[in-house]
Design brief:
The protein is of the alpha/beta class and about 375 residues long. It folds into 3 domains: about 30 residues; about 40 residues, no CATH class; about 260 residues, no CATH class. The chain is about 30% helix and about 15% strand. The protein is built from 11 helices and 14 strands. An 8-stranded mixed beta sheet has the order 6-5-14-12-13-11-9-10. A two-stranded antiparallel ribbon has the order 1-2. A two-stranded antiparallel ribbon has the order 3-4. A hairpin with a 2-residue loop joins strand 3 and strand 4. Helix 7 crosses helix 10. The longest helix has 26 residues. The protein is globular and about 90 Å long. It starts with a helix and ends in a 7-residue tail after the last helix.
Amino acid sequence: MCEKIKSCLLLVLIAAVLFGLTVAGLLLPDAAQSAAERRKLTQFPEWTANSVQSGRFMRSFEDYALDQFPLRDTFRSLKACTALYLLRQQDVNDLFVHDGRIFKLDYPLHTDSVRYAGKRFRYIYDRFLAGHDVSVYFSVIPDKNRFLAPDTAYPQPDYDAFPRLLETDDFAAYIDITPTLSLNDYYRTDSHWRQEEITDTAQLIARRMGITLSAHYTKKKAEQLFSGVYLAQSALPLSPEPLYYLDAPFLEDCIVYDYETDTQLPVYNLEKAQGNDPYELFLSGPKALLAIENPHGDTEKELVIFRDSFAGALAPLLAEGYAKITLADIRYISPDLLEQYLNFDKQDVLFLYSTSVLNHSETLK
């Protein structure tokens, strides 16, 4: 009899919890976006006879219910902790934790993808650079997985194969920056490198391009802590980390021009640092085409960087050595449009891409 009572009480408790969550879901206003996941949340689908009959309404409603479920972030965190720490899974959604750092599996090496990126770089060279007075370089930014101990159980692609598969050696000089990097140069909760730790990387790249950097920087701390994209995706209860940037008198006078919006931006956008992705502090985040003009440069030399998001933190460190740095992100602008904005003559040109972009280069136009 006691067992039956216990079972009945358990069922009543479960029913009460489900009923409470249902009522909460009906009464609470729908959230527009998830700050934790950095994405918009599904809203209530349009109710029409056609959508109901076709089944489209129910499919959309299922997505809506999952996105607007009460205590959704709490349940996401509970699920992730259960999978990793209770069930002892190696990863959750290709994310894993090692020594308090979050990593993303990026395996295997997609050779076709890396070769495709190399073909896009060659297209840019053949169309715009060949026959002009330019010095062309390329460099590959390794994923932080590259610096895990060799005995780590997680598979890794052959990072040394990336420069070879790009097949750009015949028109661009390779700058190997791997020796200047270590695991401490990357954020614990994100894929990107930390600007305050890559001054030696900037020095190496500048030196290989014949530029001398001598600025002394002031390390400044953003007000908001940095919760990286991996922390958002994993829903793990790990603490955010400080976000630093390096400032100098010459950077305060640099002018950043956004070709897309025809506006001027700061080198370090402190408003963006308060947003969903604080890494957008650096050059205001993803932009198709930017230019940094340094009025204090003692040279007329210019640099063009074909880049992904990693260059946002690096370019300000290189700005000391150039009168102008132009950053083109061909994930957001077709190379065919570049001739409307750029004339290639007497410049340094750097192709600078992370292995994560190269391994998934379908984003390159």
